[in-house]
């Protein structure tokens, strides 16, 4: 959307303008983001390209209902895109509101499949409880 949201490669002012027009036509606001500046990375012939392609948007009514909400750009794991996380202030302080974060190393544990099967087999948990 802005030239500052692009490092390396080409920035297209006309495409950025078209995107802004769509946001305006739909009465949407970019919520911005904390943490990482870019959400997409690619190494092209030894040059690292980085852009803020992923974003959260909302309308004014939603923003008025959730004024404390904010977005975090998280570290990428298996994709060239970084996940984005919508948070509300204060949710970090409560253990039950913390997001589940899967550690890729867990999948290498020799009892991983058995542990997961047993955990999910105990009851019919919600996705959050199962995780």
From TrEMBL:
InterPro entries: Endo/exonu/phosph_ase_sf
Protein name: Endonuclease/exonuclease/phosphatase domain-containing protein
Domain of life from the UniProt record: Eukaryota
Cited PANTHER family: BNAC02G09200D PROTEIN, DUF4283 DOMAIN PROTEIN
């Amino acid at each position: 959307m802005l030239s500052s949201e692009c490092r390396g490669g080409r920035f297209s002012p006309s495409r950025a303008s078209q995107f802004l027009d769509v946001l305006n036509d739909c009465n949407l606001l970019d919520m911005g983001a904390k943490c990482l500046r870019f959400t997409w990375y690619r190494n092209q012939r030894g040059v690292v390209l980085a852009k803020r392609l992923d974003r959260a948007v909302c309308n004014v009514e939603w923003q008025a209902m959730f004024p404390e909400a904010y977005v975090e750009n998280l570290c990428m794991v298996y994709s060239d895109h970084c996940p984005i996380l919508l948070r509300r202030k204060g949710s970090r302080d409560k253990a039950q509101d913390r997001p589940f974060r899967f550690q890729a190393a867990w999948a290498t544990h020799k009892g991983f499949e058995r542990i997961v099967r047993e955990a999910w087999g105990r009851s019919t948990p919600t996705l959050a409880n199962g995780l």
